[in-house]
Amino acid sequence: xxxxxxxxxxxxxxxxxxxxxxxxxxxxxxxxxxxxxxxxxxxxxxxxxxxxxxxxxxxxxxxxxxxxxxxxxxxxxxxxxxxxxxxxxxxxxxxxxxxxxxxxxxxxxxxxxxxxxxxxxxxxxxxxxxxxxxxxxxxxxxxxxxxxxxxxxxxxxxxxxxxxxxxxxxxxxxxxxxxxxxxxxxxxxxxxxxxxxxxxxxxxxxxxxxxxxxxxxxxxxxxxxxxxxxxxxxxxxxxxxxxxxxxxxxxxxxxxxxxxxxxxxxxxx
Length: 269
Ligand SMILES: C[S@@+](CC[C@H](N)C(=O)[O-])C[C@H]1O[C@@H](n2cnc3c(N)ncnc32)[C@H](O)[C@@H]1O
Ligand SMILES: *[C@@H]1O[C@H](CO)[C@@H](O)[C@H](O)[C@H]1NC(C)=O
What we know:
The protein has 269 residues and is an alpha/beta fold. It is built from ten helices and eight strands.
């Protein structure tokens, strides 16, 4: 079964503002493809949200189409800065509006764990042409921070915060999102496939930006639905503790955030 989340407007706005786009990983995906094919007509980014990842594919393809089930997410696509060869469709991941064998690349960025995984994979296999590639990427929620010589202290504070949110994980993704992807990878019948368990992406962000990102996670959103005052208290407490460990006077202080991505890539024979 697929789950419907990320549909609220506020959430979509926060999403656009705070999520990290994995440019470095797009290079890995394109490197994988370029070794295997010369056909770059159509890429489809499934569960594209507000399209920041989708747009990163534009330079490599004649046409890129982002698809998402959520109208609120698609409304947030920044249309004026969207490349001319990128467009969007509202549809479920499990029913893609493409002909069989039409697509050169199917991606899902931090999204496939929300889908009906089996039906999505069948659908991706259907729309890919022979030689076309599938790229699924996501990251674990345990981002790390680096800041001078207090990185360890910051990471202890982060771990404590993540632990409080842990029980609010959506049952659809269970306790281990990496396993969802290794299971999907193991089930993929294509012989030419590649798994990478940890690909670190570093970004300089403000403390507020980091906290804003964490607040877009579904477990924080769930906590907030249950008790919004308590959720606010939790994140302001988190902010205060981090600022104090950093001896920072403003939440606009910059830290290095490390996001641990994992991904798999496969080529349809
Ligand atoms: C965590 S967001 C990721 C968005 C974007 N790919 C990114 O990297 O920022 C997950 C997205 O998957 C979409 N989604 C969830 N279930 C879906 C389904 N069954 N079909 C299509 N999209 C779905 C949500 O609406 C949401 O926009
Ligand atoms: C698609 O748009 C991107 C960004 O504007 C551009 O770099 C790329 O060349 C375009 N592709 C084609 C085939 O027009």
